[in-house]
Amino acid sequence: MSEKLWDGRFSEKTDTLVEAFTASVDIDGRLYAYDIEGSIAHCKMLAKSSIITEDEASSLIQGLEKIKAEIETGQFQFDDTLEDVHMNIEARLGEIVGTVARKLHTARSRNDQVALDVRMYLRAETANIISRLTELRKVIVRLAKPHTDAVLPGYTHLQRAQPVLFSHHLMAYYEMFSRDAERFRDCLGRTDVMPLGAAALAGTTYPIDRHYTAELLDFPKVSANSIDSVSDRDFIIEFLSAASICMMHLSRMSEELILWSSSEFAFIELSDAFTTGSSIMPQKKNPDVPELVRGKTGSVFGHLFAMLTMMKSLPLAYNRDMQEDKKPLFEATDTLQACIEIYIRMLPNMKISKETMLHAASEGFLNATDMADYLAAKGMPFREAHNCAGRAVSYALNQKKELHELTLEDLKSFSSLISEDIFEFLTIEQMINRRTSFGGTASENVMAAVREAEKELANI
Fold this sequence. Notes:
With about 450 residues, the protein is mainly alpha-helical.
């Protein structure tokens, strides 16, 4: 065989610097199993279509299976001078089965071959991410269920706003991760398309059966346009977009865990197994795990923008720039899966301080809106009631008291509509359980949401 599988028209050897610069096998080597699986299906299709003989196909398949075993046992030696995983496998195949190896590439190009490999890789990884998101959602539900009596201050602008159930707050993340799973399922539908047979860009003159290849590889759809088949990386961009949104959700949760575990909040305590200490301050217990998840979010965002930037000005069809799609894809996939996995293990070991949260929810005039609602229920227009409650808050601040600590006489000075029943109206229990609007924080709502989530997860 010639030194390179494509060097027939070249009169000079490739510069060694160019070989090093263009090599990608250190990145795309991880695609070997998909490359071999795709090649085996391609062989079977070529034989079925009488493009190669059954004996030739059998020989090629045996050789490919031998190469897979060599790679998995560490016996295979990848060669950077052969550029990528595809050419490494084909070169080794020639050593094993001889010149018949040259027939493997009939009716295909590395362009549609790599498109196939990446799609097979990504559909497997996406399915795994969906599965792990399901497990993360189960963890959140299991954490929410026993804490439907725990109250914490809900925040807007990072200022205490209104009391909510801790389980209601957790179930907000359940909704976020549910949307993430939906996005990945949508992505999977557009990833699960078989591109092999497009060849370099124009299709092939051989009488191939692309639908048979798709059937062998369990693809429900076959790409409809040969040019688009090899130049499309939308499915990677879409995946990275979904991954970025999911990482953003994990980062938001990380930020709250970091705040809540601080002495200033003290709402939770992270397990020692998921924290670290300081090299100089013996008392420190640092939330390094959520901090790292928060930090890693930026790299996943960067991978999305790298792909968008790479693809934005590429003419049809394939361009070598697209070799650079794998590093951002692989790194983002690895990062996302690691972050999901660590949350699955970290959250169940988190301690909840109900007393501290309740104390925080009892201060800061979190019942001011309820005072306005009370007055509105008595017939006062809400804007006027809002103003009245605001003046009561101002008075209470001067008295260094909460609204519910004022006397009835104090409160009646702001409106004659106020009577003794206001004090029950301003209790945390009443504030929580009156918010029965669909999706609100009332206990019955939250317990229903938990039950619905359990039912949904049980059917996945």
